[in-house]
């Protein structure tokens, strides 16, 4: 029988998060070294962790480490409390701070990370936009003005400005198929994957794969 | 009887065992044998009703994902928590060690939602 090497698992909040984090890992030389799963939204995290704990892969010991990620959205503290609480409820252990590893009894180590980074509000798209300010400053400036204009005149403020920006940039791409699929659009967007906005997450990914 | 299908014979065999021998605990190996996957949910609904009525506890083994999911769907509207799944796994770091994991409808429901294998 082929020996099985346990792999680190990165849990992502949604498809876009998984796509971006997976692409970031590829750009960091970690292709194939990590497993990624999306848990279908922040409200599903607790149930997904319960499922994971009962899954054959977890019980057989196929995960060396588990990194839980979620977006901060408008409130970093609430997002951290929710992620920490879900880990505590399911595994009876609580990480002290984002990125801190704790050992699950009889299982792998686990940590939680709030995107875009400690103390910040926003989401995975915020990282993409922040890292693209240098590669496409004119477009980002246009979008900033566009969002300000919409906020002033539309009647409803745009809460998810970064998501709106990334989808708008993707939708303006030359390839029709790219415009309709974030999966196809992300690799072709001029995102600076080496930008410092990604550094803390990259370092965390590198640390779990070593 | 000989004109009926395997599923009918299988179901009748199990019901006869329950009503004739009145066991408190019934063990069935590879319960899905002879059953067509589209009929599994109805099979489970009928069987669960009889088990509850006759106060019998069933331990059934299966390798069939369809069978597990059908049992889950059949048990969902029932009161209480009549169904538990128990899976045996070998640890990759110690293949001699077999670990038993038990889970219920909450985990199974999420697994079905995410199309995740729980066998």
* H/E element sequence of chain B: HEHEHEEH
What profile does the largest beta sheet of chain B have?
Answer: 2 strands, parallel
Kindly identify the CATH topology of the largest domain in chain A.
Answer: Uracil-DNA Glycosylase, subunit E
Structural class of chain B: alpha+beta
Q: Strand order within the widest sheet of chain B? A: 1-2
* Count of discrete domains of chain A: 2
Chain-averaged pLDDT of chain A: 89
The CATH architecture category of the largest domain in chain A equals 3-Layer(aba) Sandwich
Helical content band of chain B: 40-55%
Helix-strand pattern of chain A? EHEHHEHEEHHHHHH
How does the major sheet of chain A shape up?
Answer: 5 strands, mixed
Folded structure, characterized:
The complex is a heterodimer of chains A (210) and B (119). Chain A has helices at residues 15-27, 45-54, 56-59, 76-91, 124-132, 137-153, 161-171, 176-180, 182-185, 199-209, and strands spanning 7-12, 35-38, 63-71, 102-103, 109-115. Chain A is α/β, with parallel strands linked by helices. Chain A folds into 2 domains: 7-121 and 194-209, Uracil-DNA Glycosylase, subunit E, CATH 3.40.470; 136-185, no CATH class. Chain A has a 5-stranded mixed β-sheet, sandwiched between helices. In chain A, strand 1 (7-12), helix 1 (15-27) and strand 2 form a beta-alpha-beta unit. The radius of gyration of chain A is 18 Å and the shape is globular. The two termini of chain A are 25 Å apart. The mean pLDDT of chain A is 89. Chain B has 119 residues and is of the alpha+beta class. Chain B has helices at residues 6-21, 40-54, 65-75, 105-113; strands at residues 25-28, 57-60, 85-90, 98-103. Chain B has a two-stranded parallel ribbon with strand order 1-2. A two-stranded antiparallel sheet of chain B has the order 3-4. In chain B, strand 1, helix 2 (40-54) and strand 2 (57-60) form a beta-alpha-beta unit. In chain B, helix 1 runs parallel beside helix 2 and helix 2 packs across helix 3. The N and C termini of chain B lie far apart (34 Å). The A-B interface holds A 1, 4, 6, 40, 44, 47-48, 50-51, 54-56, 59-62 and B 87, 89-93, 95, 99, 101-103, 106-107, 110-111, 113-114, 116-119.
């Amino acid at each position: 029988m082929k020996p099985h090497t346990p792999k680190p698992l990165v849990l992502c909040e949604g498809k876009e998060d998984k796509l971006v984090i997976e692409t970031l890992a590829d750009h960091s030389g970690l292709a194939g070294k990590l497993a990624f799963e999306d848990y279908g939204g922040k409200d599903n995290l607790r149930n997904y962790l319960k499922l994971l704990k009962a899954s054959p892969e977890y019980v057989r010991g196929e995960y060396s480490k588990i990194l839980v990620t979620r977006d901060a959205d408008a409130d970093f503290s609430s997002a951290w409390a929710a992620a920490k609480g879900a880990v505590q409820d399911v595994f009876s252990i609580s990480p002290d701070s984002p990125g801190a590893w704790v050992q699950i009894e009889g299982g792998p180590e686990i940590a939680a990370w709030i995107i875009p980074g400690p103390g910040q509000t926003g989401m995975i798209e915020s990282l993409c936009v922040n890292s693209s300010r240098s590669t496409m400053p004119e477009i980002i400036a246009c979008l900033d003005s566009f969002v300000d204009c919409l906020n002033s005149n539309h009647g409803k403020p745009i809460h998810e400005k970064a998501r709106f920006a990334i989808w708008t940039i993707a939708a303006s791409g030359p390839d029709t198929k790219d415009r309709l699929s974030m999966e196809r659009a992300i690799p072709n967007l001029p995102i600076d994957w080496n930008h410092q906005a990604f550094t803390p997450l990259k370092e965390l990914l590198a640390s779990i794969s070593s | 009887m000989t004109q009926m299908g395997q599923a009918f014979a299988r179901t009748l065999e199990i019901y006869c065992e329950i009503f004739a021998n009145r066991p408190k605990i019934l063990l069935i190996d590879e319960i899905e044998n002879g059953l067509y996957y589209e009929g599994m949910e109805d099979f489970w609904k009928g069987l669960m009703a009889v088990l509850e009525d006759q106060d019998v506890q069933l331990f059934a083994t299966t390798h069939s994902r369809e069978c597990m999911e059908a049992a889950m769907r059949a048990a969902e509207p029932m009161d209480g928590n009549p169904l538990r799944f128990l899976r045996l796994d070998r640890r990759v770091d110690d293949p001699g060690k077999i670990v038993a994991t038990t889970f219920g409808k909450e985990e199974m429901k999420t697994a079905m939602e995410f199309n995740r294998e729980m066998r």
